[in-house]
């Protein structure tokens, strides 16, 4: 299963390290990353492969959201299909 | 996948209130028919709670994984007049209470199908069901009722129209300590559809499968935001913009419906391509019409704007999903739409204009509070007018009005939650009593003879 992770918030030291560290801990593989600063906000998107992940989607979502709170950013994870079905035929 | 597209989807959900309005499980109760009413009710309760056991849980899991809210999880059932007809009971309230209990057990927020289809005539089951409506709606929390009084194929049953005016008043009376809430759960249709996922008018038609999942999408806020970007441009551009956005909204419905039906192991029925407003700011159909250039919804031009919106939503949505059904179009409930409420309050929108709008949108006079002293015959006459619009134009129309007891024009009725609040609207004070007293049937229109 593939998912899309979005991280939005005030730029700070250690956001990428924190997020990717957490993903490694959850056995989630990062397939693609795009990161930019939009209107002063740190905006990062990752395409993830969840096939090796051990915990449930709900648990991963919660632990990533907790990590976000710790880093002062908003972290969301959604299954990829919601984006592909909306934007492609 | 482009960053821009990902952000667009997230913005649509978070800022513009894009959501899946409802996933509705249609359950046939034809195999629950029994000569003994108590046995029939036991079978009904068992079947609903068995089939819909995981409906709410599945809806929540999908919502969580895809990150899109699914606001309602609901159930529609075979019209109870058909299911209860074999039983000897004189009053069908107990059937409504069984549905209510099943709703509470499964955790859904409405069960639709306390219904009768009397477009041409009554069976004894239909008669008993309709007589039970006021008590049934007053003694249950989550049961919705509907009665179909006309169709293009069969004309309008004016006896039923006459009776329903009285039933609406009686329901208001019985639920007066809840502001006539019972009437918000009662719809009178012409050309009712069998696969509608939206309440209060949902029921599971007899032509449907044993169990099926239907989806209703929404997203007026998304359409409004898209139109803000094409201010002043010709209607060709407006129509194209709405089509594109309707396509995207409907794709969400298709995805969620497909996923939910797979997980529940039941067939996926239809997507209802609707723009259903809520009282929340930024979730209004009226504001879309105003964005097209009208100072207020209700002014001249409103009907044309709504016609364009309704048509473009369908055109955009049709290609986005495998099967389209239900009501499919823009809803114009007054109490559930902040823009409609404001238009009534500032005197820009009246009942006559709303009636004209129902000729080009997907439903009818919806969630409108009228003075409590409105005669039953006047309500019947409103139903007759709406049914005529539906029957002649080959479309679904409906009436869901709430007589606000003890209140008059200018007062407000507060329902709370997604049902919102409604300013009491003026009705024509001239009598329709002799017209309604005639009864009988208005014959089917000439264009119904297509064979």
Characteristic key phrases:
heterodimer; A: 89 residues; alpha+beta; 4-stranded antiparallel beta sheet; 3 helices; B: 451 residues; alpha/beta; 11-stranded mixed beta sheet; two-stranded parallel ribbon; 16 helices
Write up this protein.
- Chain A has 3 helices and 4 strands.
- Chain A has a 4-stranded antiparallel beta sheet with strand order 2-3-1-4, with helices on both faces.
- Chain A starts with a strand and ends with a helix.
- The model of chain A has no long low-confidence stretch (mean pLDDT 92).
- Chain B is α/β, with parallel strands linked by helices and 451 residues long.
- Chain B has 16 helices and 15 strands.
- In chain B, strands 1, 2, 3, 4, 5, 6, 7, 8, 11, 12 and 15 form an 11-stranded mixed beta sheet that branches. In chain B, strands 9-10 form a two-stranded parallel ribbon.
- Chain B is globular.
- Chain B starts with a helix and ends in a 9-residue tail after the last strand.
- At the A-B interface, strand 3, helix 2, strand 4 and helix 3 of A face helix 1, helix 3 and helix 10 of B.
Brief characterization of the structure:
The complex is a heterodimer of chains A (89) and B (451). Chain A is α+β, with helices and mostly antiparallel strands.
């Amino acid at each position: 299963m593939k998912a899309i992770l979005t991280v939005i918030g005030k730029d700070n030291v250690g956001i990428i390290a924190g997020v990717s560290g957490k993903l490694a801990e959850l056995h989630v593989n990062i397939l693609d990353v795009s990161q930019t600063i939009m209107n002063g906000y740190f905006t990062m998107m990752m395409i993830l492969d969840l096939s090796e992940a051990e915990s449930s989607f709900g648990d991963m979502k919660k632990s990533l959201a907790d990590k976000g709170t710790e880093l002062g950013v908003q972290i969301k994870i959604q299954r990829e299909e919601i984006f592909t079905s909306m934007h492609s035929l | 996948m482009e960053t821009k597209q990902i952000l667009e989807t997230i913005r649509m959900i978070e800022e513009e209130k894009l959501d899946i309005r409802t996933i509705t499980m249609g359950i046939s109760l034809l195999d629950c028919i029994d000569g003994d009413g108590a046995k029939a009710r036991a079978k009904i309760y068992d079947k609903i709670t068995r089939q819909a056991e995981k409906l709410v849980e599945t809806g929540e899991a999908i919502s969580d994984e895809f990150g899109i809210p699914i606001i309602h999880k609901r159930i529609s059932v075979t019209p109870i007049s058909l299911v209860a007809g074999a039983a000897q009971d004189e009053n069908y309230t107990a059937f409504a209470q069984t549905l209510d209990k099943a709703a509470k057990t499964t955790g859904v927020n409405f069960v639709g199908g306390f219904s009768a289809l009397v477009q041409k005539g009554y069976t004894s089951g239909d008669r008993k069901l309709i007589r039970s409506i006021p008590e049934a709606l007053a003694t249950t929390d989550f049961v919705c009722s509907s009665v179909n009084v006309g169709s293009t194929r069969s004309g309008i049953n004016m006896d039923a129209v006459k009776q329903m005016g009285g039933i609406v008043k009686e329901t208001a009376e019985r639920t007066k300590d809840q502001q006539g809430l019972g009437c918000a759960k009662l719809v009178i249709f012409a050309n009712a559809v069998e696969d509608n996922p939206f309440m209060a008018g949902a029921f599971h038609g007899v032509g449907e499968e044993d169990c099926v999942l239907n989806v209703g999408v929404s997203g007026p806020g998304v359409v409004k935001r898209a139109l803000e970007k094409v201010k002043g441009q010709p209607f060709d551009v407006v129509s194209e913009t709405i089509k594109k956005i309707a396509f995207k909204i409907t794709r969400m419905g298709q995805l969620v419906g497909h996923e939910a039906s797979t997980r529940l192991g039941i067939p996926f029925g239809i997507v209802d391509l609707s723009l259903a407003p809520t009282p929340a700011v930024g979730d209004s159909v009226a504001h879309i019409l105003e964005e097209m250039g009208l100072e207020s919804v209700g002014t001249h031009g409103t009907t044309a704007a709504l016609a364009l919106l309704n048509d473009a939503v369908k055109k955009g949505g049709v290609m986005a999903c495998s099967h389209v059904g239900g009501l499919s179009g823009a809803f114009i409930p007054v109490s559930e739409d902040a823009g409609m409420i404001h238009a009534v309050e500032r005197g820009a929108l009246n009942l006559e204009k709303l009636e004209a709008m129902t000729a080009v949108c997907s439903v009818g006079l919806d969630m409108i509070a009228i003075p409590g002293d409105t005669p039953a015959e006047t309500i019947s006459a409103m139903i007759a007018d709406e049914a005529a619009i539906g029957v002649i134009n080959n479309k679904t129309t409906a009436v869901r009005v709430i007589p606000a007891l003890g209140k008059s024009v200018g007062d407000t009725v507060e329902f709370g939650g997604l049902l919102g609040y409604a300013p009491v609207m003026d009705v024509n004070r001239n009598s329709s009593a002799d017209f309604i007293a005639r009864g009988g049937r208005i014959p089917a229109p000439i264009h119904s003879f297509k064979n």
